[in-house]
Amino acid sequence: MSITTILFDLDGTLLPMDQDTFAKAYVKGLTVAAEPAGYSPMILGAAIMAGTAAMVKNNGEKTNEEVFWDTLERTYGESVKNDIHLFDEFYATDFQKIKDVCGFDPKAAELIRHIKEKRFRVALATNPLFPSVATESRIRWAGLNPGDFELFTTYETSRYCKPNLDYYKEILKQLQVAPDECLMIGNDVAEDMIAEQLGMKVFLLTDCLINKNNADISCYSHGSFDKLFTFIDALK
C-alpha cells in the first residue's frame, strides 16, 4: 500500500536538541519556579522524574496526565492539585527560556511544507510526557505551528508512551489509517524505529541520533535532513 501519512517525532528530530541537556533545564526551571510556593527543588525534582517514569510505564487505564499527578500526590497529597496553576504559569513564562538550550534547523519547516504540498497527511508523534501548552511551544521553537499537524500527542489525551507499541496503535486509531500507510520519522532508535514492528515504514534521522543500546542502524533507512528530502520524494 502507498504511504499516505507521515508521523514525526519532535525533540531531536524537528527540534534539534541534546535530550539530557533539555531535560535538566526543564526540571531545574520548573523546580525553581515552584520554590517560592514552598516546594523543595530537590523533592519536587525527584517527584517530576518519578511522574515521568510512571507515564512511560502507563498501561492505558488512565491518561498520562492522570498518572503524572497521581504520582505527585504520593509525595504531596491531594493538595498538590491545587497548585496546578503554578505549573501552567511556568509553561507560559520561564519554560520559554528553555528554547535557548535547543537548536534550530530551518529545514524542519521546509520539509513539513514540502510534505504537505505533496498531499501527505502529517501528524506529530512526540512522546506525550508534556501538557499541550508545552508541546505547542516546542512546535513553535522548531519554526512550525500546531496547525501544521493533523494530530499531535500530549499527556492530556494519550494513555501510553514510547516505546510502547500501544502508543503507535493509539495514533493509528485516531487517524484511522493502517500501519503500512504510514512512515515514522524520528531520531531515537529504540523509541521511534520500533514502529516498524507494526508494519510502518521508518526513517532514522541521524542529526541528533539517540542510540542508547548501540544497535546496528544499517537495517533502517537513515541519514540527515537532506537525505530525508530525497527519501520522501521517492515514496510511492
Report on this structure.
With 236 residues, the protein is of the alpha/beta class. It is 42% helix and 9% strand. The chain has two domains: 5-17 and 103-233, HAD superfamily/HAD-like (Rossmann fold); 20-99. The chain contains nine helices and five strands; from the N terminus they run E-H-H-H-H-H-E-H-H-E-H-E-E-H. A five-stranded parallel beta sheet has the order 2-1-3-4-5. Helix 8 (189-192) links the parallel strand 3 (182-186) and strand 4. Helix 1 (19-34) packs across helix 4 (84-92) and helix 2 (41-56) runs antiparallel to helix 3. It is globular and about 55 Å long. The N and C termini lie close together (9 Å).
In short:
With 236 residues, the protein is α/β, with parallel strands linked by helices. It has helices at 19-34, 41-56, 64-76, 84-92, 106-117, 132-141, 165-175, 189-192, 225-233; strands spanning 5-8, 121-124, 182-186, 201-205, 221-223.
CATH class of the largest domain: Alpha Beta
Determine the structural class based on helices, strands and strand pairing. alpha/beta
Question: How would you name the oligomeric state of the polypeptide chains in this document?
Answer: single chain
Number of helices: 9
Layout of helices and strands:
Layout: E1 5-8, H1 19-34, H2 41-56, H3 64-76, H4 84-92, H5 106-117, E2 121-124, H6 132-141, H7 165-175, E3 182-186, H8 189-192, E4 201-205, E5 221-223, H9 225-233
Parallel strand pairs: 1-2, 1-3, 3-4, 4-5
Helix pairs in contact: 1-2, 1-4, 2-3, 5-9
